[in-house]
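Quick question: what would this complex look like in 3D?
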Amino acid sequence: AQKITQTQPGMFVQEKEAVTLDCTYDTSDPSYGLFWYKQPSSGEMIFLIYQGSYDQQNATEGRYSLNFQKARKSANLVISASQLGDSAMYFCAMRPNNAGNMLTFGGGTRLMVKP
Amino acid sequence: DVKVTQSSRYLVKRTGEKVFLECVQDMDHENMFWYRQDPGLGLRLIYFSYDVKMKEKGDIPEGYSVSREKKERFSLILESASTNQTSMYLCASSLNSGGVNQPQHFGDGTRLSIL
């Protein structure tokens, strides 16, 4: 069975600073994809970034980057130059190749950006 | 851009009522999903569908059923609503590719209250 763990229920970061949101995962499938989603208070889930288990380089999308450490089974999200609009819940999710199209989600981290 | 539309943002129903939550996507995605989201529990998969008239149980299908008569529409049905089904409900869709890199795209969610 797959499991995603996000150990930080809530975090504060000062505006314009960088922040790292932790995610560890567990799967026996050698092929899998890792996803991060943002959920503002309005409720919609916004796809941010994807990392494949066989990708050679860490994924980046604008201010978002993924610190992927395969041996440690971790896929931490790094947000650079935090903005007030980054305040939201952030979810890490995984899709192993043997799980069909199903995603397993972590419990989420609430990020609060201070002005 | 992918558009996943849920019929209601907020819904209030009474115990014992039959409740329908509707979801429509406009990107010809094969896969569609229904989740519920509760504080501290993250997103939990109720049902998913990978084709018209096909459905698979997720982690918490009890008390729910689904219908997919057309590719673009996936309905969640609460046969006899109970107060423990008060929650945020999220619909998602994704392409049915052979790899693990397809993200799920979410609707804005429906906050359902059962009185």
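Answer marked as accepted. The two ends of chain B are 37 Å apart (CA to CA).
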